[in-house]
Design goal:
Blueprint (H helix, E strand, L loop, with lengths): L6 H8 L4 H8 L7 H4 L4 E5 L3 H13 L4 E5 L4 E3 L4 H5 L9 E3 L9 E3 L3 E5 L4 E4 L4 E3 L2 E4 L4 E2 L17 E2 L5 H17 L1 E7 L9 H16 L5 E7 L8 H13 L3 E3 L2 E7 L4 E6 L4 E5 L2 E3 L4 E2 L2 H4 L31 E3 L12 H19 L12 E8 L2 E7 L19 H19 L4
Parallel strand pairs: 1-2, 1-9, 2-5, 9-20, 11-18, 12-13, 12-18, 13-14
Antiparallel strand pairs: 3-4, 6-7, 7-8, 10-19, 15-16, 16-17, 21-22
Helix pairs in contact: 1-2, 1-10, 4-10, 6-7
The structure holds flavin-adenine dinucleotide (FAD).
């Protein structure tokens, strides 16, 4: 194993610190094999989000002769982790919007189209305009697809009206979600929060939305008139048992009704009725004054329908990218890597996961370009600042196996703290922007 294989552990510790200390870890990329450094390999990245832009910046710095192309039509950068704060009235929408051009390395060729067809046997990607883009190496970083269509009657354009809320769809939807939650926090009524059965990005977000809405009800006078419910399509609300129990206790303190194995399957927006399908197929319809919808998620269609997707196991249904969970190299095509939410790996799907896995992907890609084996390994680092109320949070960090992996010895990951809130509110975005630039 190369000396760089220890990067995952080192960088994890540096994640929230940023700055010069983290630069030293990145400097590990200084030991670039000459064969890779001199290579004029054609590298294509699909997706210019958190993972894609970070990788483009690191590769542009590390491989001066490589021919790097990134494919993504989206020009506005979304700082997704800020959406929960927009949707609960703590941040303005403008705070989560940026321009991808501000972060794009100048020597990278940016094709403002979408990857439509992957042809890994021919080492090429065809875009939605029919352009054929050939590659020697490919990094798939196209995130997730929100499958709102799986919920009959759901219309993302109606978010914000008639008590319909959903933080996930876009910054605009998050702002409109705040309109709905603000009204509910005054008026009260029957508030329903959902969790689908698919893997989702930021598994803490549906819970943050619930807990912060409870806090808004207290602040805005609606608490005594409100009955809140949480409908999970799983048999819990969070994947780590201690936090699952904590959350269920917190919900019980607020007399919340919690249901398991209930998947939101239909919504009648005009009549404010939500229908849930239970595990046995039975359906159950209830009225609401506020419905917070978390859509089922899957890999983008172009990945799902390609030879790059899992074809068996629990990642096959969502068509997630079939990568090795340690090296993040594709299991069938060694010149292909995956990074970010699109990866069919356990847990993850957070920006913190992106932060920790980008150096692994870049290092392993460089090894493969140099004709070596990829040896850097990722531990599955996932981080969720669980916002429990305004001014308090718990910083939950864990690996693939669900082991807690706290960065700071002085923060108890099982205690709510003001510091963890400040991190989410003020420190994580600057670190994220440095990550995009490939600096940390
Ligand atoms: C509400 C919410 C709250 C969150 N909170 C946190 C948090 O507190 N902490 C945290 O660490 N993480 C959080 N996350 C998760 C975090 O934002 C994601 O894990 C992270 O953005 C994933 O990065 P990505 O590059 O994989 O995806 P993205 O950043 O979404 O980028 C994917 C890119 O791929 C592009 N794309 C899609 N399809 C194609 C195609 N066919 N061809 C080309 N390009 C394509 C898209 O246009 C997009 O630009 C949150 C997410 C949400 C939605």
């Amino acid at each position: 194993m190369s000396s760089l294989s220890a990067l995952s552990g080192i960088n994890r510790r540096k994640f929230l610190l940023g700055g010069a200390a983290a630069m030293a870890a990145v400097a590990g990329l200084g030991a670039i094999p000459a064969r890779a450094e001199q290579s004029n390999a054609k590298i294509v990245i699909t997706g210019a989000g958190a993972a894609g832009i970070s990788i483009a910046n690191r590769l542009a710095k590390a491989l001066p002769n490589a021919n790097i192309t990134i494919i993504d039509r989206r020009e506005t950068h979304y700082y997704w982790p800020g959406l929960t704060l927009v949707a609960t009235g703590a941040w303005a929408k403008s705070k989560v919007l940026d321009r991808n051009a501000s972060f794009m390395p100048s020597r990278v060729n940016w094709i403002k189209e979408m990857a439509d067809v992957y042809e890994p046997d021919n080492k090429r990607v065809i875009t939605d305009t029919g352009r054929v883009v050939e590659y020697d190496f490919l990094v798939v970083a196209s995130g997730v697809e929100y499958n709102y269509d799986a919920i009959e009657g759901m219309d993302v354009n109606a978010i914000g009206q008639n008590g319909l809320a959903s933080v996930y769809n876009s910054p605009d939807a998050a702002a409109k979600t705040w309109d709905a939650i603000r009204k509910y926090s005054v008026d009260g009524g029957n508030g329903i929060f959902t969790l689908p059965s698919t893997p989702i990005r930021c598994a803490g977000a549906p819970l943050k939305m619930t807990l912060l809405t409870l806090d808004r009800l207290q602040q805005n006078g609606g608490a005594d008139k409100a009955q809140m419910s949480f409908y999970s399509a799983l048999n819990g609300v969070f994947g780590l048992p201690w936090y699952n129990d904590f959350l269920l206790n917190r919900f019980a303190e607020h007399d919340m009704d919690v249901k398991f194995r209930h998947e939101l399957s239909a919504v009648d927006i005009g009549a404010r009725k939500a229908t849930f399908t239970q595990e046995d197929g039975n359906q159950f319809t209830t009225e609401y004054d506020l419905l917070h919808v978390v859509p089922p998620m899957r890999a983008p269609r172009s990945v799902r329908e390609s030879n790059l997707a899992w074809t068996e196991g629990n990642m096959a249904a969502g068509g997630w990218l079939a990568v090795d969970r340690d090296t993040l190299q594709h299991l069938t095509y060694p010149e292909v890597f995956g990074c970010g939410d699109v990866n069919g790996t356990p847990r993850g799907k957070t920006a913190a996961t992106v932060k920790m896995s980008v150096p692994i992907v870049v290092q392993n890609l460089i090894s493969v370009i140099a004709g070596e084996e990829p040896e850097a390994t990722f531990d599955g680092y996932t981080s969720c600042p669980l916002l429990t109320r305004f001014g308090a949070a718990m910083l939950i960090e864990f690996d693939y196996d669900g082991n807690l992996t706290p960065t700071y010895s002085f923060i108890d990951p099982k205690k709510e703290s003001w510091f963890a809130w400040i991190m989410k509110d003020q420190m994580l975005k600057p670190t994220y922007l440095q990550m995009l630039k490939g600096n940390v």
